[in-house]
């Protein structure tokens, strides 16, 4: 899952070297924290959060296939 988020985020931003994904586990849930450069934050979130919502939808779909719960936080 971490690699999926990393690949998607790097394709969206102008500064792919600054993209980081931190993975933590909490009570059977995987939490992915996506960090990007401040200038690229708007590109990852999108207008009214549409891109962020689309990324979360893709992650949810992939995690349902593996019967896991994954949450994405953009910080």
UniProtKB/TrEMBL annotation:
GO BP term, example: peptidoglycan biosynthetic process
Entry GO terms, CC: cytoplasm
Residues spanning the membrane: none
InterPro entries: KH_dom-like_a/b, KH_sf_prok-type, KhpA
Gene3D superfamilies: 3.30.300.20
GO molecular function, a single term: RNA binding
Entry keywords, A to Z: Cell shape, Cell wall biogenesis/degradation, Chaperone, Cytoplasm, RNA-binding
Subunit structure: Forms a complex with KhpB.
UniProt protein name: RNA-binding protein KhpA
Source organism: Paraclostridium benzoelyticum
């Amino acid at each position: 899952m971490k690699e999926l988020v990393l690949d998607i985020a790097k394709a969206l931003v102008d500064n792919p070297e600054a993209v980081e994904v931190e993975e933590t586990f909490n009570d059977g849930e995987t939490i992915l924290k996506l960090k990007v450069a401040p200038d690229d934050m708007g590109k990852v979130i999108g207008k009214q959060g549409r891109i962020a919502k689309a990324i979360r939808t893709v992650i949810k779909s992939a995690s349902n296939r593996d019967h896991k719960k994954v949450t994405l936080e953009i910080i």
